[in-house]
């Protein structure tokens, strides 16, 4: 990954974390961020099922 690509990726991470921090409904914002990241990964052919954390009922 080129330096500019890496910088862009880190800016995206930082911006997303700031969005979560500032959100009135943090859970809703986190779910949005997860959906966006999942769409990007799957567009690159990376399946996300095995990456999901199992939550306790």
Features:
mainly alpha; 2 helices; 57 residues
Description of the structure:
The protein has a domain at 20-44. Helices cover 67% and strands 0% of the residues. The protein is built from 2 helices and no strands. The longest helix is centred in the first third of the chain and has 20 residues, at 3-22. The mean pLDDT is 90.
Helix and strand layout, with pairings?
Blueprint lengths: L2 H20 L3 H18 L14
Distance between the termini: 40 Å
Provide a count of the helices: 2
Proportion in β-strands: under 5%
- Order of helix and strand elements from N to C terminus: HH
- In total, the number of strands is 0
Query: How does the major sheet shape up?
Result: none
What is the radius of gyration?
13 Å
Helix content, binned percent = 55-70%
Q: What's the mean pLDDT score? A: 90
**Spatial shape:** flat
Low-confidence stretches: none
Summarize the model shown.
With 57 residues, the chain is an all-alpha fold. The protein has helices spanning 3-22, 26-43.
């Amino acid at each position: 990954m080129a330096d500019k690509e890496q910088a862009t990726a880190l800016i995206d991470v930082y911006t997303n974390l700031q969005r979560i921090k500032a959100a009135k409904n943090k859970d809703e914002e986190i779910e949005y961020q997860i959906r966006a990241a999942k769409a990007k990964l799957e567009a690159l052919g990376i399946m996300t099922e095995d990456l999901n954390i199992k939550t306790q009922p």
